[in-house]
Amino acid sequence: MINFIIWIIVGALLGWLASIIMRTDAQQGALLNIVVGIIGAFLAGLLLTPLFGVGTINQNNFSIASLLVSLLGAVILLAIVNLFRRGSVR
């Protein structure tokens, strides 16, 4: 149960950081930050884990490397959303 709570908090933090990096913070609330952080970590698990050999927060790995890979996945997710929404990554 405590891992689930930590997973939600870390997902929210990563989603918030990714939204600041991609300048979409004013458009998102706390719930969307959680969703972006967790789905971004899932996306990183599919695309980036084989490249870097590091797990993500979805795999109960809370190291610095896994946090950075999960953050990168969240940034990639927001870039894809911006590409379809606005026609540019920004």
Condensed summary:
With 90 residues, this protein is an all-alpha fold. Helices cover 72% and strands 0% of the residues.
Written description of the protein model:
There is one protein chain. The chain has 90 residues and is mainly α. It has one domain. The chain is built from four helices and no strands. The chain is globular, with a radius of gyration of 12 Å.
How would you name the oligomeric state of the polypeptide chains in this document? single chain
- β-strand amount: under 5%
Overall geometric form: globular
What is the alpha-carbon Rg in Å?
Answer: 12 Å
Helix share, percent: over 70%
Q: How many helical stretches?
A: 4
SSE layout and pairing:
Elements (H helix, E strand, L loop, with lengths): L1 H20 L8 H18 L1 H4 L11 H23 L4
List keywords for this structure.
90 residues, mainly alpha, 4 helices, 0% strand, globular
